[in-house]
Amino acid sequence: MKRTRVALVTGGNRGIGLEVCRQLARTGVTVLLGARDRDAGKAAAAELASEQAGVMPVQLDITSSVDIAAVRAHVERDFGALDILVNNAAVLLAEDAGIFEVSDSDVRQTFETNVFAQLAMCRAFVPAMVDRRYGRVVNVSSTAGQLQSMSTYAPAYSISKTALNGLTKTIAESVKGTGVLVNCVNPGWVRTDMGGPHATLTVEQGADTIVWAATLPDNGPTGTFLSSRRQIAW
Asked: Helix or strand or coil: residue 87?
């Protein structure tokens, strides 16, 4: 029997992450729904289980090396390796503070989650993808970090997303030609807890390009910034 693809989605218990889990499961992918809160993860997985099989919760605070190691061990024990990594979890702190007012602690916490934890996740799972000559990594970014149009909005968050874009490009180049495709995706302004009720896109629309990038064919793009299934400027 052919092995199904296995995906890990961080921040999968709500918003865009939950919808990514739903859409990936619909394609037949086995989905590990990562959630910092164990109970929230179980509740989200139970919600999806009523719609389709193949979604399992895992406790995962991406800033915890202990949690990351435990999930990697779980993947290796039960599935052999991970095929798809969607780095969706992120924080938006001090959204209304200017660059001269945002606190050092908010900047550091933002970078710990939005940059350093993303690197830790890639270090944990990408090498095995390279060994197997297959992998898809999607880092959920934002045009808030797009240098071409960058403004004064949420400086800690925006600068962290610029750094995430740079991280994505570096990892993509490091694994080029190995069958591992690494891209970052701008989901757009989505109606979630982070995006707010006045956002222009539904979670279904926001998840679409993420899922598309997570299931790219072997000749798909890598090392790119994607939005609405198209490459955009850095």
From this structure: strand
Q: Is 175 left (phi over 0), alpha (psi -120 to 50) or beta?
A: alpha
Instruction: Tell me whether residue 154 is exposed, middle or buried, using C-beta atoms within 10 angstroms of its C-beta: 0 to 12, 13 to 18, 19 or more.
Output: buried
Work out the number of other CB atoms within 10 angstroms of the CB of residue 34: 29
Which of 169-178, 202-211, 223-232 is predicted least confidently?
202-211
At residue 51, the pLDDT reads 76
What is the Rg, in whole angstroms, of the alpha carbon atoms belonging to the chain? 17
Among residues 31, 126, 145, 157, the one annotated as catalytic is 157
pLDDT(10) > 60: yes
Distance CA 126, CA 74 (A): 15
Strand partners, 16: none
SS3 158: helix
Each residue's pLDDT tens digit, 139-150: 999 999 999 999
Domains defined for the chain, CATH in brackets: 6-232 (3.40.50.720)
Taking the CA of residue 19 as centre, how many other CA atoms within 13 Å lie in the half-sphere pointing to its CB?
18
* Burial letters 176-204, b for 16+ CB under 10 A, else e: eebebbbbbbbbbbbbbebbeeebebebe
Band (pLDDT 50/70/90 cuts) for residue 1 is very low
Has 153 been annotated as catalytic?
A: no
Per-residue pLDDT, averaged over 97-122, amounts to 98
